[in-house]
Amino acid sequence: MPARRGEKLREHILWTAKDVFLEAGFERTSMDVVAQRAETSKRSLYAHFPSKDALFSGVVALVRELYLDRLGSPEDYLTAERADPADALVRYCGRLLQLLLWSSSLRTLRMGITEAERVPEIASGYYEAVFEAPMARIVAYACRTWGLTQEEAREVAEILVGRTVYPELMQGLLGVREPIADRPDEATLAADVDLDKIAASVRRLVPGAPAS
Q1: Residue 26, helix vs strand vs coil
Q2: Distant-in-sequence, close-in-space partners of 206: CB < 8 Å, separation ≥ 6
Q3: What are phi and psi of 72, to 5 degrees?
Q4: What is the DSSP string of 175-194?
Q5: For burial by CB atoms within 10 Å, which of 65, 119, 138, 176 has the most?
Q6: pTM of the prediction?
Q7: Whole-Å CA distances, 116 to 8, 28, 134
Q8: What does residue 180 show for φ and ψ, rounded to 5 degrees?
Q9: Where does the record place the HTH tetR-type domain (predicted)?
């Protein structure tokens, strides 16, 4: 196998470092271990990432990209079989919760919280991706679908996520509920989260949403 170079090596290091950070946590992760696991030299590692903070920042950016790509937008949950726009919003919120309750996501969130005071810019960037970007997608969808104003849609999004996502996420972060062990699949969405509870909130908040 030819040696990885340039961007391919950088990407490989990030994927390797992601696993090491999740296994060991930030404090116990060393650049030596990352270089060894990535099968590259420390010189090459430091050429791409001059410090552990820079490496962690790169890993957080990678996780943000993966997370938002897997989540998509509410329109992505509209299908020929499921054409109800309110149902699409229910499934989008369910998918958001499902992804956050994944054991890998919970460990990453805990690391971000632990390091937030020391590297606030990394924590704020992760918060924007994990919470603000999904919220903005709900706002845009509600405006387009139901003709709500930005202010009305933002209020709906904040209440909806506050009722259906945050309580269970806090339970997951504190270990009160079992995390989702395997990578969340849309096929298991209904088994992993309570879609009926989310649907009840959508019906109360969105004008014209069906009662069932």
Answers
A1: helix
A2: 86, 89, 142, 146, 156
A3: 70, -150
A4: TSSPPB-SPP-GGGHHHHS-
A5: 138
A6: 0.87
A7: 29, 17, 21
A8: -80, 115
A9: 7-67
